[in-house]
């Protein structure tokens, strides 16, 4: 019972991590809910194996990103193409409408990135440093820096169009 209570507390304290990943990797609200549930399920399955060798958020990001990538691969194998639903981005709760529009634009362009690029830029936007991103993704810190520079350039060129 204590394990379950600890897990629920962990999810409640860090649900923003899961929400942000589902926002980027899911195509519509229904897919977002399904992915959220799948991530929580995978976290539960792995909960006993977490030994505290990294921060809990690093562990959660790693599982959430791996689950999201696996989910995308399964969808591709199905051959289904789901169109992007702009209503998901309407949930971003910002008072400043100019900032809200910029965030929407950014996330719409992030959705166009490949699977790995989405994960790296999402972690960067969360304020993770290169070493933390490297720990989550398995890349080296220098590789993370290179990838981030390329992703930033790609986003800048897409947004300027």
Automatic annotation (TrEMBL):
<dbReference type="InterPro" id="IPR000792">
    <property type="entry name" value="Tscrpt_reg_LuxR_C"/>
</dbReference>
<keyword id="KW-0805">Transcription regulation</keyword>
<dbReference type="InterPro" id="IPR013325">
    <property type="entry name" value="RNA_pol_sigma_r2"/>
</dbReference>
<dbReference type="InterPro" id="IPR013249">
    <property type="entry name" value="RNA_pol_sigma70_r4_t2"/>
</dbReference>
<keyword id="KW-0731">Sigma factor</keyword>
<protein>
    <submittedName>
        <fullName>RNA polymerase sigma factor</fullName>
    </submittedName>
</protein>
<dbReference type="InterPro" id="IPR036388">
    <property type="entry name" value="WH-like_DNA-bd_sf"/>
</dbReference>
<comment type="similarity">
    <text>Belongs to the sigma-70 factor family. ECF subfamily.</text>
</comment>
<dbReference type="InterPro" id="IPR039425">
    <property type="entry name" value="RNA_pol_sigma-70-like"/>
</dbReference>
<dbReference type="InterPro" id="IPR007627">
    <property type="entry name" value="RNA_pol_sigma70_r2"/>
</dbReference>
<dbReference type="Pfam" id="PF04542">
    <property type="entry name" value="Sigma70_r2"/>
</dbReference>
<dbReference type="InterPro" id="IPR014284">
    <property type="entry name" value="RNA_pol_sigma-70_dom"/>
</dbReference>
<dbReference type="InterPro" id="IPR013324">
    <property type="entry name" value="RNA_pol_sigma_r3/r4-like"/>
</dbReference>
<dbReference type="Pfam" id="PF08281">
    <property type="entry name" value="Sigma70_r4_2"/>
</dbReference>
<feature type="domain" description="HTH luxR-type">
    <location>
        <begin position="127"/>
        <end position="154"/>
    </location>
</feature>
<keyword id="KW-0804">Transcription</keyword>
